[in-house]
Write a structure and sequence with these properties.
The structure is a homodimer of 503-residue chains. The first copy, chain A, is mainly alpha-helical and 503 residues long. Among the domains of chain A are: 3-47; 169-412, no CATH class. The first copy, chain A, contains 23 helices and 5 strands. In chain A, the strands form 2 sheets. Chain A has a 3-stranded antiparallel β-sheet. A two-stranded antiparallel sheet of chain A has the order 1-2. In chain A, α10 (231-239) crosses α16 and α12 (266-278) packs antiparallel against α13. Chain A is globular and about 80 Å long. At the A-B interface, α2, α3, α9, α18 and α20 of A face α2, α3, α9, α18 and α20 of B. Chains A, B: This is CSC1/OSCA1-like 7TM region domain-containing protein. Chains A, B: Residues 7-94 form the CSC1/OSCA1-like cytosolic domain. Chains A, B: GO terms for molecular function: calcium-activated cation channel activity.
Chain lengths: 503, 503
């Protein structure tokens, strides 16, 4: 019996009766497991714990496709059917929000986001006005001797005004994510998609427009309301060429350096070593400290799209900016490819559900660049060509509508043809396939899951027969309870269709 | 043998060999019938006459509902399924337009409609400048003595400038209908719905805004582009109270008098007597001359909605206008109720497909009235209350979105619950129902129909067993080859689903 296995029963384990630590913790674990299973049983049998939402599995993909695409009930708000997200992708908290509350929440979030985008400077300005050196000296007089040191004072004076803004921008993705969660999306991928759209809009207003016409979003809004409609593209368009050097700097400082920081991963390295030093005791702790997390599409993707917008806007006006953009994209491609394959864990498989959003944002960027070009040209000698340029946005919008009709259904619906083909193929290949064992535990609330982890892993093994072309970290078991490589779950798990019945 | 049965074979029946007219026309009819049936057979057997569209009938409503609501093919543009319109409602010419052409046509029509709305005054102004008395005298010098008569001259001078505009406005519904047809809608009801939206927009721009800010739509557009965004509602809002008397006159002259003219039906009366005098020879001719046609939703409905808009806009600003509106609506209700029940033939049954459009236009009218109220108040002493009023349009838009989610599916989809209920009920009530005989000739191109008219009528009789509460002209056989009263075809004929396969 060595020292580490002795446990004292008193305060903080510092004194009291000594017992064998292994015995003590074994007993404690057993007691806790019993409590957990009791609590689980209580929840399972309690009728109040029943949610107004269910995951329904179908024997055929055809049945699931029909059920997901049709309206079941006369009242379209009390029984909604939609494709279930992947099991890993489910956001359990939002599963059963009634339709009326959903629409109210959407309204609240829309209003809140409007104020966030255009008025976020007001609270920050207030904080900044409070957080100057004089008020700090007044509130915390004992700091006065330190602050009065000249180096520190000038550092604080230079740093303090920006710090409130920096902190806000650091928390912005989190705020947007909370908004999306409040809005009631039922999958992590949908949450991230919505956050990404909002982040892009915020960046467009506050970084792109904010840099070009220099002023807070609120002042811009005020300007736009009081300016005539055809003056707006003129004002912006005319100042675009002047801001080219600023954006070249921005691309280098934010873009290139950002990509470099991405591959360095300095922050995770420091955090890992801190964790390693203070918290890591077992091998499992170390593994958890090593966990790189997910790639965070909700901030990375809009950032990249902002550079796309910059490229489109400056392509005609100041082509010298383009090489910088190209270098950024080349770097970003190499780095993010590496990061996705070798570093990050994949949290979910959303079957390219991001693409329609990305496409929309590219179209929006195109239209913005065309409008600004029109504004710029109308201030130059080519003013008479401006009306002809109107055909450009009209054709772009038309192209978007065409693509929406032609390609969007591929992301939203599962055609019956494909479902039937796969069903028939499967029936011919594996006539005795028994899905029940797999499906029984596929959609299970994480609270009930932990105990059955091994069981699921066993079932999973059966499903993981396909060889992967590139060895990635994607099948990492810890964060991915279910592999997504198998064909059956490639399209938002066609065999399992979630029915949400709402009251 | 009386005179009327003698036919002369020469030019215009004035000379030549005399033959018995009954024999001659019987022979001619037979020859024509033979030609027609030959031509029909040729078309039926010719593979080039096969359209890339088909009407598919299902054994159960459930099957039809599933097929109409799901995507069949991997490429969503080559095989579209949608609810078939009622047989009477089908617009055969547009049945098989490929998706790409549809989107191109939509673009062309959108651009054309924009120019029609905002630039229609330009050609009219040109015509007006040409059509003055001097140029008429120059072109047609022999009319000079007549024109120089003082009464006629002043009449022409007063009348001529307006006549080009009047003729244009007379043809406007036809132009809009041609646009809708070109756009490729497959049912008459959809054509009329789209024309109605366009007509409403045209009226809103050219009658409502045109009267308030006095100027052609093109000048308005120019103003709006060069005016600051918050000035537009101010300009319009400020001039609204001044125009109240004009709109009261407008309601009386156009609204009240229009309703009175509707019940008088003076124009159809004159046309009937002219036709009766010149063309009517047989009983069938007389019946055709009596035919009142359909009610023409595409012009009547937007007209009524314009009065709704006027009522909403003036409700707060100049409530004295409201009694005039109420009198108009009361009159219109009585008159149109009478006309629909006793006068007009019903061309199709679209199952209230108009309502979503009407609802949207009411919402738009509400938002316009709120914006104009904000504009008006901001010019008065209540300027500081304007920002608070912004909540009104926000809440209105939210209400619209809620209604769209809650009620629109009832107009677009057929819930499986209802389909299944009706199927089960029918199977229990009429287990031996044979639909084939009815469905075989339900969707048949009018070209093939005439010969089988009697046959269809016989089949129809079986279906017309339900008593109607109010005896209307709705079942008029001549223009309505299929009755729409029976429950089975009440929702765009759920038992027959049209599949459009496009190349």
């Amino acid at each position: 019996m060595n020292f580490s296995s002795i446990k004292q029963m008193g305060f903080l384990g510092l004194w009291g009766e000594s017992v064998d630590a292994v015995d003590f913790y074994t007993a404690k674990t057993e007691r806790l497991s019993r409590d957990i299973s009791l609590e689980r049983e209580k929840i399972t049998s309690n009728p109040k714990s029943i949610m107004a939402a269910a995951f329904v599995s179908f024997k055929t993909r055809w049945g699931a496709a029909v059920c997901a695409q049709t309206q079941q009930c006369r009242n379209p708000t009390i029984w909604l059917t939609e494709w279930a997200p992947e099991p890993r992708d489910v956001y359990w908290e939002n599963l059963s929000i009634p339709f009326v509350f959903l629409t109210i929440r959407r309204l609240i979030v829309a209003v809140a986001f409007f104020f966030l985008t255009f008025f976020f400077v007001i609270p920050i300005a207030i904080v900044q006005s409070l957080a100057n050196i004089e008020s700090i000296e007044k509130a915390l007089p004992f700091l006065k001797p330190i602050i009065e040191v000249k180096v520190i004072k000038s550092f604080i004076q230079g740093f303090l005004p920006g710090i409130a803004l920096k902190i806000f921008l650091l928390f912005l993705p989190t705020i947007l994510m909370i908004m999306s969660k409040f809005e009631g999306f039922i999958s992590l991928s949908a949450l991230e998609r919505r956050s990404a759209s909002r982040y892009y809009f915020f960046q467009f207003i506050n970084v792109f427009l904010g840099s070009i016409i220099t002023g807070t979003a609120f002042q811009q809004l005020n300007n736009f309301i009081h300016q005539s409609t055809n003056e707006i593209p003129k004002t912006i368009g005319a100042s675009i060429p002047m801001k080219a050097t600023f954006f070249i700097t921005y691309i280098m400082v934010d873009g290139w350096a950002g990509v470099a920081a991405e591959i360095l991963r300095l922050k995770p390295l420091i955090i890992y070593h801190l964790k390693n030093f203070f918290f890591v005791k077992t091998e499992k702790d170390r593994e958890e400290a090593m966990d790189p997390g997910t790639i965070g599409f909700n901030t990375g993707e809009p950032q990249i799209q902002l550079y796309f917008l910059l490229g489109l806007v400056y392509a005609i006006v100041t082509p010298i900016l383009l090489p910088f953009i190209i270098v950024f994209f080349a770097l970003a491609f190499v780095v993010f490819r590496h990061q996705i394959i070798n570093v990050y864990n994949q949290e979910y498989e959303s079957a390219a559900a991001y693409w329609p959003d990305v496409h929309l944002r590219i179209i929006v960027a195109l239209i913005i660049s065309q409008l600004l070009l029109m504004g710029l040209l109308s201030t130059k000698e080519a003013a008479s060509s401006t009306p002809l340029l109107i055909t450009l946005p009209v054709l772009t919008i038309w192209f978007h509508r065409f693509c929406k009709g032609r390609y969007e259904p591929a992301f939203v619906r599962n055609p019956l043809q494909e479902a039937m083909m796969k069903d028939t193929l499967e029936r011919a290949r594996e006539p005795n396939l028994n899905l029940k064992g797999f499906l029984q535990n596929a959609y299970i609330h994480p609270v009930f899951k932990s105990a059955d982890d091994d069981k699921i892993d066993v079932v999973m093994e059966e499903w993981e027969e396909e060889p992967s072309l590139i060895a990635t970290k994607r099948t990492s078991k810890r964060s991915t309870p279910l592999s997504s490589k198998h064909g059956r779950s490639s399209f938002s798990s066609p065999e399992a269709n979630k029915e949400r019945s709402k009251t």
